[in-house]
Design brief:
The chain is of the alpha+beta class. It has one domain: Jelly Rolls (Sandwich). Helices cover 17% and strands 30% of the residues. Strands 1, 2, 3, 4, 5, 6, 7, 8 and 9 form a nine-stranded antiparallel beta sheet that branches. A hairpin with a 5-residue loop joins strand 5 and strand 6. The longest helix is centred in the first third of the chain and has 22 residues. The structure holds calcium ion. The site of calcium ion (CA) has 7 residues, from strand 9.
């Protein structure tokens, strides 16, 4: 059922401006999932890249230039996050459930959230984690990082059905969870939910991301989660 991902990945950014994400090609179907009107005060999100095709359709050089500049800005942001010296990518992951009960390094398994992002197009992709069901409700990822830090930021890279994260927690040395963000995830398309907060007094090497998959119809997939913080 996933052989047509290339097609889906190409069509999705145009067909589904926000929200819904399918595992099978349904070109005629469009989603009208709404974007949130109230971004959480303690999060910031850069805009997604402009679709080059949209600019080409307009036939305007100015629009093409704007699209290229937006594309360059997008690439610079991706590069800065990937190479952030205070950023760490997860080395272990467990999840509430996985698509097709995927284990170990199988497609859509929890392990697909470890390491740096490797999904570069919005849409269903086995290099990201997906829960067992599309719209079942509460699902979570529990992530371990190599180095305990005073955390100040968590970046959740959403690659399909973005916008379903409802809570981010970090865990102290005693194993107690501390909610650093909860609210309405404003992420659309392929992008990071960026959660910023005052540096934690404790050191943490564990992050839990909770989703309500019912709020964004279709599959909700997470490619990677970065923990940002310093030793002191
Ligand atoms: Ca991945």
């Amino acid at each position: 059922m996933h052989s047509s991902c290339r097609l889906i990945c190409f069509l999705l950014p145009f067909a589904l401006l926000a929200g819904g994400c399918k595992k099978e090609a349904t070109p005629k179907e469009t989603s009208t999932a709404t974007t949130s009107g109230t971004a959480p005060a303690n999060s910031a999100l850069a805009s997604a890249p402009a679709a080059p095709a949209a600019a080409a359709d307009s036939g305007s050089n100015a629009a093409e230039t704007t699209a290229k500049l937006a594309g360059a800005e997008w690439a610079l942001k991706q590069d800065a996050i990937k190479h952030d010296p205070n950023g760490q990518w997860a080395i272990q992951a467990t999840a509430s459930s996985t698509y097709n009960d995927a284990k170990d390094t199988a497609s859509w398994s929890a392990n697909k959230v470890t390491g740096a992002p490797n999904v570069d197009t919005y849409g269903d992709n086995g290099e990201a984690w997906a829960p067992k069901t599309q719209d079942g409700g509460i699902e979570w990822l529990d992530l371990k990082y190599p180095r305990p830090v005073h955390a100040a930021e968590v970046r959740v890279r959403e690659s399909c059905g973005a916008g379903a994260v409802i809570k981010v927690e970090v865990f102290d040395e005693q194993g107690a969870g501390h909610t650093v963000w909860s609210g309405n995830d404003p992420t659309t398309d392929l992008n990071y939910l960026i959660v910023k907060f005052p540096p934690t007094t404790f050191k943490t090497d564990r992050v839990k991301v909770t989703l309500a998959t019912n709020v964004i119809p279709g599959w909700n997939e997470i490619d990677a989660v970065q923990l940002v913080g310093t030793d002191k």
